[in-house]
């Protein structure tokens, strides 16, 4: 899926974008509409913020390393459709602050 398609699908609510960086990194700038779910506390926080295990999630971090870990963790937790977007450094569109 292209970044343009991801962006459009997220705006329509068809997918959910998840930022697995720290709160401080998120506050410095994140993809619009992304939910924060820090990879360091993912096991505890995911059930509270990622409520639908059947929903399609696209996960990103700063460079792509933490997002890979988060995708594996979420899959092991029972989330059915979790995808790695890589790093926000590759995001070609605006970010929110």
Q: Can you walk me through this structure?
A:
Helix content is about 35%, strand content about 20%. It is α/β, with parallel strands linked by helices and about 100 residues long. It has a four-stranded parallel sheet, sandwiched between helices. It is globular and about 30 Å long.
DSSP helix fraction: 25-40%
Share of β-strand residues:
15-25%
Total strands: the figure is 4
* Main structural class: alpha/beta
* Total helical elements: 4
Report how far apart the termini are: 25 Å
Oligomer: single chain
Order of helices and strands: HEHEHEHE
Order of strands side by side in the largest beta sheet? 2-1-3-4
Largest sheet: 4 strands, parallel
Radius of gyration: 12 Å
Output mean pLDDT. Answer: 96
């Amino acid at each position: 899926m292209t970044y343009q398609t991801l962006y459009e699908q997220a705006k329509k609510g068809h997918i959910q974008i998840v930022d697995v960086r720290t709160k401080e990194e998120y506050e410095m700038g994140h993809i619009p509409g992304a939910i924060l779910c820090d990879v360091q506390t993912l096991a505890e926080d995911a059930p509270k913020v990622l409520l639908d295990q059947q929903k399609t999630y696209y996960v990103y971090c700063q460079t792509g390393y933490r997002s890979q870990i988060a995708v594996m963790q979420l899959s092991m937790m029972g989330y059915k459709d979790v995808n790695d977007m890589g790093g926000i450094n590759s995001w070609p569109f605006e970010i929110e602050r």
